[in-house]
Design goal:
- The chain is mainly beta and about 350 residues long.
- It has 1 helix and 27 strands.
- The strands form 6 sheets. Strands 10, 11, 12, 13, 14 and 15 form a 6-stranded antiparallel β-sheet that branches. Strands 1, 2, 25, 26 and 27 form a 5-stranded antiparallel β-sheet that branches. Strands 3-9-8-5-4 form a 5-stranded mixed β-sheet, with no helix packed on it.
- Strand 16 and strand 17 form a beta hairpin.
């Protein structure tokens, strides 16, 4: 059953803290802003990053970039790991030779490798990241039709001396054009299994799969949740675990008490900037999901806000507080906020038990 054994936690309206910023004062418009830990370091991964040179001229639009938090006491600040003299930020997941050539031969086609689902650390300093490969087509392409190609996987390792990340893309795609985007809604490691939440291409419902952490490169090793049990290989019998969350993160924590160890934080599917949070006793659910606040812009108040993510590491020593972020549309950035809560029935452990709103 869903986690309804006690009253739902009470949340105050989010307290906006400011934008995620670069310590080198580089002010590029960017989105996603999901954080992850690897090798003891904290990183932010961003999506489309609009890059400019020192004269303000546009130099490129990588679809994924990464920055590292150098002081965890300042969670809004981080630094790009690799940036060229031109001002172009190097992507975390680079294009391969074939993709690079395609982009050169067809200026109207842009290959995107978007990674919304986070990074899973499978051993110290080694992680996995799933990405959604697409082609955006526009003028001067004679047939401007966007293409969805499928889900890919990459391995990450940390340089222990610098914190820089090295990426190796696994050849090919794990899931293809009309298959769910397993791993790009959210990923979480629990008891040596990676749980991968992904959306169906047509309806946008979120399905769930899992795989042993050292077999993630083998499609046949993935199991899928059919509402009662795990089935191997055939995702077509999967049932949705969510239906109205386009982006978000699933994690496991005792911060909200027994029966609420599995937590999801995301955004409403209605384009209304509503922050939604849900709880369950297991990864499969069933989930109790409710609205807990509204995401608002700073310099770009218009338009709906998206890519709402939690960051447990940011306020880990503060009871009753969770940092969340969301994205504004271009030319905006990623906004950080503090979400305060309390648990009225007193069953919470750690964060949230004593906090007064």
């Amino acid at each position: 059953m869903a986690a309804t054994n006690s009253s739902f936690p009470k949340f105050a309206e989010p307290e906006i803290l400011g934008y995620l910023t670069d310590t080198n004062k580089i002010k590029y418009s960017r989105d996603i802003g999901r954080s992850f830990t690897l090798g003891g370091n904290v990183y932010y991964i961003f999506g489309d990053t609009f890059c400019y040179d020192c004269n303000g001229d546009f130099v490129g639009l990588p679809s994924n970039t990464v920055s590292m938090v150098t002081d965890k006491a300042k969670p809004l600040e981080s630094s790009y790991l690799c940036i060229e003299d031109s001002g172009l930020v190097e992507p975390l997941i680079p294009l391969n030779e074939e993709e690079t050539q395609l982009a050169k031969d067809h200026p109207g086609r842009r290959i995107t490798l978007w990674a919304f689902g986070g990074v899973v650390e499978i051993s110290p300093g080694a992680g996995l990241i799933w990405y959604d490969k697409r082609i955006e087509c526009k003028d001067p392409d004679p047939n401007p039709r966007d293409e969805t190609l499928g889900m890919g996987l990459a391995r990450l390792t940390v340089d222990s001396s610098t914190g820089k990340l090295h990426t190796h893309r696994v050849p090919g795609l794990l899931f293809h054009e009309h298959e769910p985007t397993f791993g790009t809604f959210s990923t979480h490691l629990d008891d040596d299994h990676i749980y991968l939440y992904g959306k169906t291409r047509e309806e946008g419902h979120t399905l769930l799969s899992r795989v042993y952490k050292y077999l993630a490169e083998r499609r046949e090793a993935y199991e899928h949740w059919d509402g009662r049990k795990w089935i191997q290989g055939d995702w077509s019998r999967s049932v949705p675990v969510f239906k109205d969350l386009p982006q978000g993160a699933v994690f496991r924590s005792g911060m909200f008490g027994p029966g609420r160890e599995w937590i999801v934080v995301g955004v409403s599917n209605c384009g209304d900037s509503k922050i939604r949070m849900g709880f369950a006793e297991s990864a499969e659910g069933p989930w109790e999901v409710r609205e807990v606040g509204v995401a608002r812009g700073i310099d770009v108040p218009e338009g709906y806000k998206y890519c709402i993510y939690p960051h447990l590491w940011a306020f880990k020593d503060e009871q009753g507080a969770l940092m969340v972020t969301w994205s504004e549309h271009c030319p905006g950035g990623v906004v950080a906020a503090k979400l305060k809560f309390r648990i009225e029935d007193g069953c919470g452990q750690g964060n949230g038990v004593q906090e007064e709103l």
